[in-house]
Protein backbone atom coordinates (compact mmCIF):
# COMPACT_ATOMS: atom_id res chain seq x y z
CA UNK A 1 0.00 0.00 0.00
CA UNK A 2 1.06 3.54 -0.46
CA UNK A 3 0.66 6.89 1.22
CA UNK A 4 -2.17 7.68 -1.22
CA UNK A 5 -4.38 5.11 0.51
CA UNK A 6 -3.55 6.63 3.88
CA UNK A 7 -4.36 10.09 2.54
CA UNK A 8 -7.79 8.86 1.33
CA UNK A 9 -8.58 7.40 4.75
CA UNK A 10 -7.52 10.63 6.46
CA UNK A 11 -9.50 12.81 4.02
CA UNK A 12 -12.59 10.63 4.38
CA UNK A 13 -12.31 10.73 8.15
CA UNK A 14 -12.19 14.53 8.03
CA UNK A 15 -15.25 14.57 5.76
CA UNK A 16 -17.10 12.23 8.13
CA UNK A 17 -16.35 14.43 11.14
CA UNK A 18 -17.61 17.44 9.20
CA UNK A 19 -20.85 15.65 8.26
CA UNK A 20 -21.32 14.52 11.86
CA UNK A 21 -20.84 18.05 13.18
CA UNK A 22 -22.86 19.98 10.60
CA UNK A 23 -25.62 17.56 9.60
CA UNK A 24 -25.90 14.63 11.99
CA UNK A 25 -25.56 16.60 15.24
CA UNK A 26 -28.63 18.75 14.59
CA UNK A 27 -30.52 15.75 13.18
CA UNK A 28 -29.82 13.68 16.27
CA UNK A 29 -31.17 16.44 18.49
CA UNK A 30 -34.32 16.53 16.36
CA UNK A 31 -34.82 12.75 16.15
CA UNK A 32 -33.11 9.90 17.87
CA UNK A 33 -31.23 7.48 15.64
CA UNK A 34 -28.61 4.94 16.56
CA UNK A 35 -24.94 5.85 16.50
CA UNK A 36 -22.64 2.85 16.76
CA UNK A 37 -20.02 4.04 19.22
CA UNK A 38 -18.30 0.65 19.32
CA UNK A 39 -17.26 1.13 15.69
CA UNK A 40 -15.93 4.61 16.39
CA UNK A 41 -13.92 3.36 19.36
CA UNK A 42 -12.51 0.52 17.27
CA UNK A 43 -11.62 2.99 14.53
CA UNK A 44 -9.86 5.26 17.02
CA UNK A 45 -7.88 2.32 18.39
CA UNK A 46 -6.84 1.18 14.92
CA UNK A 47 -5.74 4.71 14.00
CA UNK A 48 -3.79 5.05 17.24
CA UNK A 49 -1.98 1.80 16.48
CA UNK A 50 -1.47 2.87 12.87
CA UNK A 51 0.15 6.11 13.98
CA UNK A 52 2.82 4.10 15.81
CA UNK A 53 3.70 1.99 12.78
CA UNK A 54 6.19 2.49 10.04
CA UNK A 55 5.85 1.20 6.51
CA UNK A 56 5.56 -2.56 6.33
CA UNK A 57 3.15 -5.44 6.63
CA UNK A 58 1.69 -4.39 9.99
CA UNK A 59 1.19 -0.83 8.71
CA UNK A 60 -0.62 -2.20 5.64
CA UNK A 61 -2.85 -4.43 7.81
CA UNK A 62 -3.70 -1.56 10.14
CA UNK A 63 -4.40 0.77 7.25
CA UNK A 64 -6.69 -1.81 5.67
CA UNK A 65 -8.45 -2.33 9.02
CA UNK A 66 -8.93 1.43 9.42
CA UNK A 67 -10.27 1.67 5.89
CA UNK A 68 -12.77 -1.15 6.45
CA UNK A 69 -13.82 0.21 9.84
CA UNK A 70 -14.43 3.67 8.39
CA UNK A 71 -16.55 2.18 5.59
CA UNK A 72 -18.57 0.24 8.18
CA UNK A 73 -19.20 3.38 10.24
CA UNK A 74 -20.41 5.32 7.19
CA UNK A 75 -22.64 2.46 5.98
CA UNK A 76 -24.24 2.08 9.42
CA UNK A 77 -24.90 5.81 9.58
CA UNK A 78 -26.59 5.66 6.17
CA UNK A 79 -28.74 2.74 7.37
CA UNK A 80 -29.67 4.62 10.52
CA UNK A 81 -30.68 7.69 8.56
CA UNK A 82 -32.70 5.75 5.99
CA UNK A 83 -35.66 5.56 8.36
CA UNK A 84 -35.85 9.29 9.09
CA UNK A 85 -38.48 11.18 7.11
CA UNK A 86 -36.87 14.59 6.79
CA UNK A 87 -35.14 16.65 4.15
CA UNK A 88 -32.06 17.03 6.32
CA UNK A 89 -31.47 13.28 6.37
CA UNK A 90 -31.45 13.22 2.56
CA UNK A 91 -28.59 15.75 2.53
CA UNK A 92 -26.72 13.81 5.22
CA UNK A 93 -27.13 10.51 3.34
CA UNK A 94 -25.88 12.09 0.11
CA UNK A 95 -22.82 13.43 1.93
CA UNK A 96 -22.15 10.04 3.50
CA UNK A 97 -22.51 8.26 0.15
CA UNK A 98 -19.97 10.69 -1.30
CA UNK A 99 -17.53 9.67 1.44
CA UNK A 100 -18.02 6.02 0.45
CA UNK A 101 -17.33 6.85 -3.19
CA UNK A 102 -14.10 8.55 -2.15
CA UNK A 103 -13.04 5.40 -0.27
CA UNK A 104 -12.43 2.85 -3.02
CA UNK A 105 -11.08 -0.49 -1.91
CA UNK A 106 -7.40 -0.46 -1.09
Automatic annotation (TrEMBL):
<dbReference type="Pfam" id="PF15760">
    <property type="entry name" value="DLEU7"/>
</dbReference>
<protein>
    <submittedName>
        <fullName>Deleted in lymphocytic leukemia 7</fullName>
    </submittedName>
</protein>
<dbReference type="InterPro" id="IPR031510">
    <property type="entry name" value="DLEU7"/>
</dbReference>
